[in-house]
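Recall the central idea of this unit: under ordinary conditions, the amino acid sequence of a chain determines the structure it adopts. In this exercise we apply that idea directly, starting from the sequence alone.
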Amino acid sequence: VLFILNGLERLNLDFRLAGTELCCDPSEPVPPSAIVVNLLRKYLLPEASIIVTMRPSAVRRIPGKYVGRYAEICGFSDTNLQKLYFQMRLSQPGCSGENSMGSSSGERENLVEMLSRNLERHNQIAAACFLPSYCWLVCTTLHFLYFTRTVPPSQTLTGIYTSFLRLNFSGEVLDSTDPTNISMMKYVAKTVGKLAYKGVMSRKTCFSEDDLQQCFEVEMKTESELNLLEVFRSDVFRFFLSPCVQAGKEHTFVFTVPAMQEYLAALYVVLGEKKTLAQRVGKELSDVIGKVSEDVAVVLSIISKVLPLRFLPVLFNLLKIFPRYFSRLSGKDQDAIAHTMAEELFKEEDYYNDDVLDQINSSILGVEGPMRHPDEAPDDEVFELFPIFMGGILSRRNRAILEQLGCSIKNLAAFEIAKAMKKTVIRNSRKGLPPSELMDYLFFLHEFQNERFTAEAIRSLRTVNLSSVKMTPLKCSVLASVMGTTCHEVEELNLTSCNLDTSSLRILFPVLLRCKALHLQLNSLGPDACKEIRDLLLHDKCVVSNLRLANNPVGEQGAQYLAEALAGNRSLTHLSLLHTALGDRGAEVIAQHLAENQHLQELNLGYNSLTDTAALHVVEVAKKHATLDKVHLYFNDISEDGKRALHSLRMDRDGVRALVFLTAGTDVSDYWSHILNVVQRNLPFWDRERVRQHLALILQDLESSRRQTANPWRKAKFLRVESEVKKMLGKLQHGA
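Accordingly, the structure predicted from this sequence is:
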């Protein structure tokens, strides 16, 4: 028989004969502690084998004569074991609680490969993954980042870290022999949390021995407190802090997992541990006076019945003033927490960093390309997770888990903080935020898990600009979930260059329906995505009036889907298909269905390799359209004859404007600046050589038209436009 006795430090065993009597009969009724002691004495079931796990500080509680062998379990001593763990863990579908069956095995293999490379070159993360529980945290975080596709997401990042702490410290008391019986997590929040908070405030991640002493030892007053600190250093310290492996900082300590610093700092603040000396003294004094006033009040109430002295009621009320005043003053703590959250969430110096989800991804998988050495600290440390964790800790689920860990956050305190946040967080969010910072704010609202608060915050967002934010499935789920708390229409949603694909559009479908202006440029959206866009535009609740799909590989098949959408849509007034590889056939398909549309006002088919026939057909249809008055056809393969034919068609019917060239007969087109601005904005994404050829043709056309006019005012206008085109050509030739 093998007995495994796990966490034996929780039992205060007494090996003295006077304390625990001998017992060799398994059928004899004795207390549980006596059974364990006699098993270890080998007096009860001597042939049985026993494995005991204990914390290092409690090892000596079992006399050495009863122990045959000591072993310290350290972790993964070989990086190959780490890699094997990651390979097995990440290959298990849905192991983080998500249904990730749909994710490809190739994506998992890629994750394992990137993680392995980062382990080989990044000593600090390899040191963290020495502990198997941190390997669990890394894998669960990766599953959250890559395989979350439900709306709303079934997890939060704060929830992952809170569950991780429950996994390791649930039910753990720092020292079972200490009368305070303080939970291990509460002690960590008070001590390590203080260190973490000071690091966040001073923008530092490396801590010296002096820093540790200031946070751990400066307030130690009693023998009991020093004993608790000794147990903490022996059992828990190395779990949260490890020696820095960065060159030149060998004698300093860093948090084993960087994000844990921000989590513990957030927990330290939300628990109300961040108090000034006056607040601490005031609370103690308030408690003392409050207790004394209760006793004195009872005596005075009895005396006042016997001796009718007028001053006694006055004295009675005076005794209650201080506790009441302090309770009112302590209510200011919630305002301070909300203010700290808002201040950290909207720090202007962090405005142009990557969003926090990309930062976490980079910290785990590394950054591809010729970057600085991974163990080299950046010039400015970024702590943007800190306020997000503060919001996440206040969610009901996380507060329930923290309650189990001995870190109690009352419902009333959470309510007061949320109330104070309305005056700070929501007001600050109304200012224009850069895209990455806006994504952080949306993620904060998701982590907070307060639907009423989120709805109030989202109603104030009429324009959502997330351009150039890499919209992973998780970020799309967060955006859809947060925006889904209200039903208000969004004036503009900018998702330009966001790495969107067909699945992203499916996740965001309910949000896209409510957007009047929708920017989807530069997203590699092909025919399959156009099928989703068709369903969007044909939906009876669609309010999209301005749709921009420029610089996407729509192609002929995609044009077919969009043409069907145009035929049945009732809201769209502006459609941009600039540089979408339509070709003549794609343009013809759109022209065929255009007659069925009664609302479109502007159509952009520029830079789509259209020839004279297709361009003329589009303008012919536009002439008969009830509302369409502007068609963009510049940068297409239109000949001089085609240009003249288009010009004559345009002249036949007032109101139809075909933007083809920078000239209009012997004058400059009214839209020359608009056309050049479009070219200027899209130069980084277009074929440079082809653009150069088009600009050369435009320049020839301008010079030819200038020679044909005798009007000096028109000549001056031509010269001005020519100079702009020459500048652009010069930049292209110099590779600018």
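Residues 2-66 form one domain.
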